Amino acid sequence: MQDVVLDRLSLVHFKNHAQGEFTFSPKLNALVGANGSGKTSVLDAVHVLCMTRSFFHSSDAHCIQFEAPFLVVQGEFRAESGTTPVYCGLKRGEKKVFKADDAEYPRISDHLGRFPVVMISPGDHDLLHGGSEARRAFMDSVIAQSDRGYLEALKNYQHALKQRNALLKYFAANRTFQADTLELYDAKLIELAPVLHEARVQFAAQFVPLLQDAYERISGGREQVALHYQSALSEQSMASLLADRLPKDRVLQYTSAGPHREDLEFSVHGHPLQRVGSQGQQKSFLIALKLAAFAVLHQTLGRKPILLLDDVFDKLDSQRVEGLIRMVNDQRFGQIFVSDTHPERTAALLKALDQESMIHDLTPAEA
Known about the structure:
alpha/beta, Glutathione S-transferase Yfyf (Class Pi), Chain A, domain 2
């Protein structure tokens, strides 16, 4: 199966780009310029076209350029089936319009997995030092790009969970309790939780060896890392969890156990990475985490995702940079986008790589 390639990108009022037109190499694309020049915005625009949303902002409106009335992001993807134009448009206060082949999707989520993508960014820091929600979102994002059934189950689970939590709040506010009404939402959670749990167990089993391989290539094999999927459903059924936690849930006014409370545990040499890992180890781990996600998507979809590398060379020692460069030069990757604030470092990188490449200098022209 031919890998997906983004040939062209057009931006209007997207973040700090009033207007922009880009043509890309099918292999390596480097975006250079000072901080604030719009390098990361270009990468995020690619992410929007692949995932229907920004990598950095939960609200689409935050992507509209300051005081502009709308934004437009358009791209042209090429694959074995031909060329596919993709369009994303948003006016302030209105619903986002998302099209492929000039046709709107019945549901925007139907677009996921069509053009797989993996972003590596300084924002990944939250995967280590943020709450469990960020780690679950990472896991869900990877699985959902290759498993439409999982995405549907996740959306239905979250909908039932929201309704159950609202009912618990209603009971508390009105000093009442209706077990039969609550059981309607319990039944839905009990039905869907095993679907999510089993997919996550399979994901972890596939993911761990790929993570360890990627980390070894970056670090030179000096450290042993691991990932563990923590889930109460490994010990109890969802029905049992809900029954056991009901008194607590009534006090808290939300559902305190289930797939929405699970976590991923990261370790180096058997110790929590967040506590004992050096800055270089932590950054290497986060890069390896995303490269393992790339490998999972490649295995499950049969085509290589687009890889977005946003400012990944800072805080890595020379050996780890060399390890990353060797991996980027490997034929296991398809189209790659790299951003960097140091043009000379980018030039040296491209010189070391045996690949077709293109440099986009976003430094503003002097008046």
